[in-house]
Amino acid sequence: MLLLIPVLIGLFLAVNMGASGTAPSFAAPLGANLIRRESVPGLFGLFVLLGAVVAGHKVVRTLSGEILPASAMQAALVSIILLAVALSLFFANLLRVPQSTSQSTVLALVGCAVYLDNLQTNKLFTWIIPTWFAYPLVAFAITYLFARFFYRPLKKSERINFDQVAVHPIWKYLTVASSCYVAFSIGSNNVANAAGPLSSLFSNVFQIPPGDPDFTLIGLAALIVVAPWFGIGSSLMGERVTRTTSQEIVLFGPLGATFISTLTATLLLLASLTRGIPTSLVQLNTACIIAIGMVKAGFKQTATETAVPRLLAVWAAAPVFAFACAYGLTALADGLGWLR
């Protein structure tokens, strides 16, 4: 019965991740009016599941023992970690702001590890945190250069009729395909935010060490259980969050939409497959959209008259909340004797 609590919290977290993750996946085609809203949850859920099964194992390994040792992840502690992340994401979704689940998860793990004086810092400071700062800047810079020196001059030259391109079936299918590619990359990275701690929990229950081949099977099983709940979250709350990203920032065309989806998904897959780094696709996607918005509308209008200030505020607050919540709940649980 005690094991059911972290599982239920993990599924609640997956629902919220599905709502938040819908925006970076399908904000581009929705913003360009290339897909019906009711089609999004099914496509999103399917490709998240595929990405989790095919490419999610390295991020599971990171979150199941390379920040907080796997041996420490008992039922009470895993419940605290997942609850802290779920609450931070839930409040962000209520504010209709897509939020980084990965950053909240890592900071929740750090909060518990700091209290227990058991923080593993090698990968955290060498790879994870530097990637968080570098990737959005790279995404913004590439997109800004693309929009400023290729997209806008091409549009001004009138060599291509973008109104006709916008309704051409090929562009529609390419943009939707690139969004499915983003959902696949989310599966490769973000499903592990819930599956990683849960896999460590059950490996401890069955007394399976992290290096054992059966540990990988437990991680795969956790990914398969968690991933479908992303689609449920997308269906329940995804539209509200997606509207903030796709329409309140800037309305962009099919070429920009396809470019954004392909670039952000590729960066996330690189992080997942090379080092197993939990990374914020939400911030990558929004950085690209802001870059296009600045080219089209200018810095001042994009920075002051859109959702950007609210996005930045929630991005900063949610991981800090996850850390504080995890630290405080761990201290409370320790005081009550639940961690012994």
Question: What key phrases describe this protein's structure?
Answer:
340 residues, mainly alpha, 15 helices, 0% strand
Task: Write up this protein.
By secondary structure, the chain is an all-alpha fold. The protein has one domain (4-335). Helix content is 79%, strand content 0%. It is built from 15 helices and no strands. It has helices spanning 4-31, 40-55, 57-63, 75-94, 101-116, 122-157, 162-167, 169-189, 192-205, 213-226, 228-246, 254-274, 281-297, 299-304, 308-335. The chain is elongated, with a radius of gyration of 20 Å.
Shape: elongated
The averaged pLDDT comes out at: 84
Q: Over the alpha carbons, how many angstroms does the gyration radius reach?
A: 20 Å
Main beta sheet, described?
none
**End-to-end CA span:** 18 Å
Low-confidence stretches: none
Helix count equals: 15
The SSE order reads HHHHHHHHHHHHHHH
Structural class determined from secondary elements: mainly alpha
Helix content: over 70%
Q: What percent strand?
A: under 5%
How many strand elements?
A: 0
Query: How many separate domains?
Result: 1
Give a short synopsis of this structure.
The chain has 340 residues and is an all-alpha fold.
